[in-house]
Amino acid sequence: MSHPVLLVEDDASIAIVITAALEDEGLEVVRCDNIKDRDRLLQEQSYAAMLTDVVLKDGDGIETIGTVTEGYPQMPIIILSAQNTLDTAVRATESGAFEYFPKPFDLDELVRAVKQAIGSGAAPQVANVSEDTIGLPLVGRSSAMQAVYRMITRVIRNDLTVLILGESGTGKELVAEAIHQLGDRNRGPFVAVNTAAIPAELIESELFGHEKGAFTGAVSRHIGKFEQAQGGTLFLDEIGDMPMQAQTRLLRALQSGMILRVGGREEVPFDARIIAATNKDLAPMIEEGRFREDLFYRLNVVPIQLPPLRERGDDIKALARHFLSQAARDGLPAHALSDPAADLLCKQPWRGNVRELKNFIYRLALLAREDVIDEQAIHAAMNETTPVASGQAAPDVEAGPAGKDDLATALGRWLTANAPEQGEIYAKAIAAFERPLFEHMLFATNGNQLRAAQMLGINRNTLRKRLAELQIDPEVYANRVT
C-alpha cells in the first residue's frame, strides 16, 4: 500500500489493539493522541484513511473534521466514539465521515470498513442535517441501540425504502420520524397511517384516495395518504395487517411510482419516501399466503430491527429518567429517580416495551409523594396495575378468574379486529389467547412452571414444551417485583 492509515486515539489500549489488527492485514499505521499532532502529521504526508476518536485531549474530534475534509477531500474518515447516542451518530454523519463505530466495536467489522474505505477512494459525503433536528426522542446507549443509530445514519443519505421490524411498543414510529427529520425530505410532510386501524373496505380509499361517486357515500374527491405525503415521507405502520387486495395495489404503486384513486381512470404520480413497519414475523405469513412475497422484497430494501426493551440493559434507567422529565414538562409533579429504584425497574420484563415503561413512569409521577422516587414508590405503582403481555391491566389471578362477560367481550373485540377466515377461527383464537394465558400464569407464579401447570390443569412437561415453542422465557417472570 502506498500510504499509511492515521489513527487518532487517546486510549492507549484501544490504539494498540486497532494498530495490531490493521498491521495484520498488511497496513501501515501512524498513531497520535491529540488534534495538534493529527494536523501536523496530515501536513507531513498523505494517508489512505484516518480513524479518529471523538473526545480527545485537546478538543472534539468531530467538530474539527470539517477542516480535515476541506484540506484532504479524498481521504475517508472513520469515527470512533464512546459517546453512544443518536446525536453523536448524526454528528458523525453530518461531518462527512465514511463510517461511524460506537465503542465497544467489533474489531473485524472495523478492519473490513477500513479496507473498504481505502478501496473506495471516495470523498466523504456530507449529510444535509440541520442543528435543530438533533435531539430526537430516541434514548439509549446499549449496543443494540447503537446498531439502530448506525442504520439510521446510513439511510438518511438516500431515499431507499425502509422496513422497521420490532415488537409492539419498541418505538418504530419514532425511528421513522427520525429518518424523515434527518433526511433531505424533512421540509416535506411526515404522514403516518396505521393500516391495522383502518377497516379492510376503506383502506384503499385511505391510502390512494377516491373520486366523487366511486362508492356510496363518496360525495367528493378524497386525497389519500400517498398524495398527502408528496415531497415527504409516508409511514405505513403495521403493514403485516394489510389485506391482500390492498397489498396488490400497494405493490403496483411502489413499482410504478403511480397511484390510481378508487373510481379513477387516470394514474397520479407520487413522490414520497416509503417507510413501513410491522410487529409480525412476515416469513410465515408469506408461506401461508397472507402476505405477498414480492411486496416484502419491495419493502425490505433496508431492514432495521428494533430490540425489545428487555434486551437494552441500562437503557431502561435512561428512558425512565427521560420520561420523568417529560412528564414534568407535561404538567405532572417533578421527581428524581433513586439508583435502587432504577435498578428495580431494570428487573421488570416490560413486555409492552418502551410504551409500557412510559405509561408506568407517567403513572409513577402522578402517584409518588416524595421528590425522590424510591423502591417503595415503585412497588406501590406496580401494585396499581398488574401488567400482562399487552402491557394493559389484568385482574389478580389469585383473586379469581375474570368474569365471563369480560372474557366474551375480549374475544369479540379480538374477532372483530383480526377477522380470521372461515375454517380458521378456532385455531387462530386458541393461538391468540394461549400466549397471554401462559404469560399471565407465569406472572402470577413468579415463573414457577410447576405451580403454573397446576393452576392451568396441564402436565408440567406439556407446559414446558409449549413455552419453548412459543419462545416464552419463564426466567423473565422469576425476577419481577413481588
From TrEMBL:
Residues 4-118 form the Response regulatory domain. CDD domains: AAA. The lineage of its organism: Bacteria, Pseudomonadati, Pseudomonadota, Alphaproteobacteria, Sphingomonadales. Residues 138-366 form the Sigma-54 factor interaction domain. GO terms for cellular component: cytoplasm. It comes from the Bacteria. Member of the two-component regulatory system NtrB/NtrC, which controls expression of the nitrogen-regulated (ntr) genes in response to nitrogen limitation. Phosphorylated NtrC binds directly to DNA and stimulates the formation of open promoter-sigma54-RNA polymerase complexes. One of its GO terms (biological process) is phosphorelay signal transduction system. It holds the Pfam family AAA_lid_14. The modification 4-aspartylphosphate is found at residue 53. It is found in: Cytoplasm. Its main location: cytoplasm. Keywords: Activator, ATP-binding, Cytoplasm, DNA-binding, Nitrogen fixation, Nucleotide-binding, Phosphoprotein, Repressor, Transcription, Transcription regulation, Two-component regulatory system. This is DNA-binding transcriptional regulator NtrC. The keyword Cytoplasm applies. One of its GO terms (molecular function) is sequence-specific DNA binding. It comes from Croceicoccus pelagius. InterPro entries: AAA+_ATPase (IPR003593), AAA_lid_NorR (IPR058031), CheY-like_superfamily (IPR011006), Homeodomain-like_sf (IPR009057), HTH_Fis (IPR002197), P-loop_NTPase (IPR027417), Sig_transdc_resp-reg_receiver (IPR001789), Sigma_54_int (IPR002078).
